[in-house]
Write a structure and sequence with these properties.
The structure holds two protein chains of two kinds. By secondary structure, chain A is mainly alpha-helical. In chain A, a hairpin with a 4-residue loop joins strand 1 and strand 2. The termini of chain B are far apart. Classes of the chains: A mainly alpha, B mainly alpha.
Chain lengths: 228, 43
């Protein structure tokens, strides 16, 4: 875990990836949250549940997304939503809109404007039958797109947010692969042990039979000698 | 990264050991079959 000192000195609303999130900023102000330390100390889910003004799921999801980003940036805590970055792009024909199977852009902490830009990018670059495209692929391409274009404060905050998600995803993927490799090695060791035991058992059986053959041959020879 | 590379090399070596053991076992099973047949014939 990262050692971060002085979280109480870091102004929550000045964080670049919160700057464009107006409803999230209003929430923080209403809760009297000024520093990153304040925010990390609140029992998030109970505050979200009790707060009637911020009751709709979109804002709750945005705040959860910002919470993940702050934990990741300052405390090095892996984001629980990284696994959902593999969510596939789908088309909702009723709403005539692109969506992702298991996650929303709000849940990733994107502001309304940021969400609108991403959705516009998807509409311009992806088709209704692009069923195998994942959220992580779209974010990677979108990041390249905003890096190539003129930078505004909006694109800078978007860039930082998406980069954090991509880095978190790569770390998570690498951990999963390492675990998978460790498990594979354990299975291979177990297979080797079993095969050694099987080979030893066969060696023992073969020795028994070979001894029996020798004894039998000895008996035959002995009989022959006696009969001479 | 270095540790991962070592693990992948170890995985490859272990796979070779397994293949060799399987081959040995197959040969020994054939030999055992021959010996048991021989014993049965002689008896």
């Amino acid at each position: 875990m990262k050692k971060v000192e002085n979280l109480e000195e870091i102004d929550l609303l000045s964080l670049s990836f919160i700057r464009n999130n107006h409803d999230v900023k209003h929430f923080f102000k209403a809760q009297g949250l000024e520093s990153v330390k304040d925010f990390l100390e609140i029992p998030l889910e109970s505050v979200l549940a009790s707060n009637k003004r911020y009751s709709y799921e979109g804002i709750k999801d945005k705040i959860r997304g910002i919470y993940d980003l702050i934990n990741y940036k300052f405390l090095d805590i892996q984001m629980p939503v990284t696994v959902k970055l593999n969510s596939k792009l789908t088309y909702n024909s009723k709403r005539e809109n692109f969506e992702f199977q298991d996650v929303t852009l709000e849940r990733l902490g994107f502001s309304t404007t940021e969400k609108y830009l991403i959705e516009r990018y998807i509409k311009s670059n992806y088709k209704v039958n692009d069923q195998e495209t994942t959220l992580i692929d779209i974010l990677k391409n979108f990041l390249l797109f905003i890096k190539r274009n003129n930078k505004t404060s909006l694109s800078v905050t978007l860039e930082e947010k998406i980069t954090m998600y991509l880095n978190a995803y790569l770390v998570e993927k690498s951990n999963v692969e390492k675990n998978a490799l460790n498990i594979e090695l354990q299975i291979l060791r177990s297979n080797i042990d079993n095969l050694y035991n099987r080979r030893e058992s066969l060696n023992h059986e073969i020795s028994k039979y070979q001894n029996n053959v020798k004894i039998s041959q000895f008996k035959d020879l002995d009989k022959e000698i006696k009969n001479r | 990264m270095e540790k991962d590379k070592e693990k992948l090399e170890l995985k490859e070596e272990m796979q070779k050991v397994i293949d060799k053991l399987k081959f040995d076992i197959l040969e020994k099973e054939k030999l055992l079959d021959k010996l048991t047949n021989k014993m049965e014939t002689e008896n």
